[in-house]
Amino acid sequence: MTKREFKAESKRLLEMMVHSIYSKKEVFLRELISNASDAIDKIYYKALTEESLTFQKDDYYIKIIPNKEARTLAVIDTGIGMTAEELENNLGTIAQSGSLAFKSENEAKDGYDIIGQFGVGFYAAFMVADSVTVISKALGSEEAYKWESTGTDGYTIEPCEKEVVGTEIILTIKENTEDENYDEFLEEYSLQNIIKTYSDFIRYPIKMDVTKSRPKEDAEGEFEEYTEEDIVNSMVPLWRKNKSEITEADYEQFYHEKHYGFDKPLKHIHISVDGTIRYNSILYIPESMPFNYYSKEYEKGLELYSNGVLIMNKCSELLPDYFSFVKGMVDSEDLSLNISREILQHDRQLQLIAKNIGKKIKSELQKMLKNEREKYEKFYEAFGRQLKFGVYNDFGAHKDVLQDLLMFYSSTEKKLVTLDEYVSRMPEDQKYIYYATGETNERIEKLPQTELVADKGYEILYFTDEVDEFAIKMLMNYKEKEFKSVSSDDLGIDSDDTQEDTALEAESKDMFEHMKSILAGKVTDVKISKRLKTHPVCLSAVGDVSIEMEKVLSAMPDNQNVKANKVLEINPNHKVFASLKEAFANDKEKLDLYTSLLYKQALLIEGLPINDPVEFTDEICKIMI
Fold first, then answer.
1. 116-155 pLDDT per residue, tens
2. Is residue 376, in this structure, part of any structural domain at all?
3. Number of domains the chain contains
4. What is the CA angle 371-374-379, rounded to 5?
5. Do 136 and 73 share a domain, yes or no?
6. Same domain, 273 and 167
7. At CA 115, angle to CA 114 and CA 116, rounded to 5?
8. Domain range spanning residue 427?
9. How far apart are the first and last CA of the chain?
10. pLDDT tens digits, residue range 397-436?
11. 0.90 exceeded by the pTM?
12. For residue 522, what is the domain's CATH number?
C-alpha cells in the first residue's frame, strides 16, 4: 500500500482549513452531516431518472457513533457511496467538490438541493481528529475502499470489506490540551447539542444511541440506565410546513425551542418567497424587552440557514437597527457562501432579503396598530424607544419608514396617539403640532409653558423619553405640519396684544434690562410672557437647542457643555410683577434678590439643577426676615 501525496496546493490549504477557515471547531460535525445528506440526495436524484432504482426515504439515514474508550467518532450514511476513483478525486484534491459537480449535472427537483459547494467541508474533521478513515461502497459497485490520512503527510486508498452501500467516516479524536477540550466531541449530550444547533433540519433522520433511565423491575424506587437508538434531529423545519397546518401553539413552541425569548411573542410573521431569490422566514415580535437590550452585550440578527443547515447564529445584516428587537430565522437555497459556509460571499442577495423583511415587519406592525391597538401599545411600551432612535439615527434617513409607527401621550385624549391621529384632529387655525417635554406626564401637565396652548384648545403631545425631541427635530414635520415646543420662543399663536400691553412692555424695558444684567451668562433675555396665565415665571428657549435637549446632552459621558439660549419670562398679570416694579423703583437690592429667586424657581420648574442650593435657601430666608 503506497502513501499518496495531496495534489496541488492541498497541503497549504489543509493547514488553512485546520487553523484559519472555521471560527468554531464544532462545525466539523455540521460539515460531515451535510456531506452525508448530500450523499443520500444523490441517490434520490438518480431515482428520478433511472427506472430500475427506487427511493424509499425511510431506508435512508445518518448515524453518529461515539466511542470514548477508542476515542473515535463515526459518521455513517446510507448514501450513494464513492468508488476508488471518486475517493481519489474528491478526497485527494482539496476543493474538488463531488457534490458541486453532481449538482451541475442534475438540476434540483421537488425542493431538494445539494448542500456542498466547495469540497472543503470534509477536511474540517482534521480540526478535531489526529486521523480520519473513510470506508465507502458506491451504489452499483461490488467493491468497497478505505481512504486513510493523518493530515498533510498524505493519504492511502486500499480495498476493504463493506456489505452495504454508503460511507463511514471514522475520526480518531485528539487528546485534550490546556486550551482545548476535545472530549466534548465524544460526549453524548454535547454531540446532540451540536446536531440540534447546526443540523436539526437536515431532511434525513440523524440517529444516535441515547442513554436513558427507567425504573428497575425488581427494586421499587430505583432506576437503571439503558441505551436506545433515537432520532435526534427534527428533520422537517416548521417554515417548510404548510401554513394552514401550523397552529399558534406550534409557532410559540418553536419560539421557545430556539431560545428566542422566555416571554410569549406578541406576533409571528411567516414568509415564503419564491421569486428572484427564494427564501423562507419565521419572524417574531417579542412581548417584552430583553434585559440586556440597550447594552453592548445585546446582539441583533436572525438565524441564517442555507438549505436547512445553520450558517450564522446572528446575521445582523438581515435586520435594520430600528427593528433589532425582532427574533427569528431565514432559510435560503440561493445564498452565495464563502468557503467556511459561515460568511456570505456576496451581499446583494442578503440585501434583497433584508429589504423585503424590513417591509414585511413594518406592514405587520401597521396592521397590529390598526386592528389590535391594545397589543400594539404593549409592543410600543417595550420597543417604542427603539423606533424613535431609528428616526434619529443616520441623520433621519429612515424617518419616512417609521413616522407612522410613532405614538405619544396626548394632553386631550389622555392616552397614546399617533401623529396621524393628532393631525386629523387639528383645528383649521392651528399651525403647528405642539409638544411638551418632561420626565413624566404628570410633571408636564403642570408646566407653566403649556397654559397658552392648552387655553387655545390645542392638543399637546407629551415627550418623556430622552430621545423624543431629538427624533422630532430630525423628523421636522409630519404631513406638512411643523413641530413646535410649548417652550419655544415663538409659539405661532396670533397675539391679542392691546395698546396697554405695548405700553407695559415699553414701561418695563429698563427693569428687564437691569434683571438681564443680574442674570448675565444665564439668560439671553428677560421679557413679558404672553404664554403664562396663572404662573408667575417660566423659561423659554431660542434656537435649535431646547432646555430638555440641554438636560439630555449634559447627562452624557462626552458632555460638550451645550446650553440652550434661555429666556426668562415674567407674567405681567401676576402679583409678582407688581412687586418687581415696586422694587425697581424703590429698592434695587431687593429687585436683585427677586430676580435671582425667580430665575432659580424657573430652573426648578424645568427640572434643571441649582448650582448653589445654600445660596437659594439663604435668599428665601432674606424674604422671610
1. 433 578 888 999 999 999 999 999 999 999 999 998 788 9
2. no
3. 4
4. 100
5. yes
6. no
7. 105
8. 395-485
9. 112
10. 999 999 999 999 999 999 999 999 999 999 999 999 999 9
11. no
12. 1.20.120.790
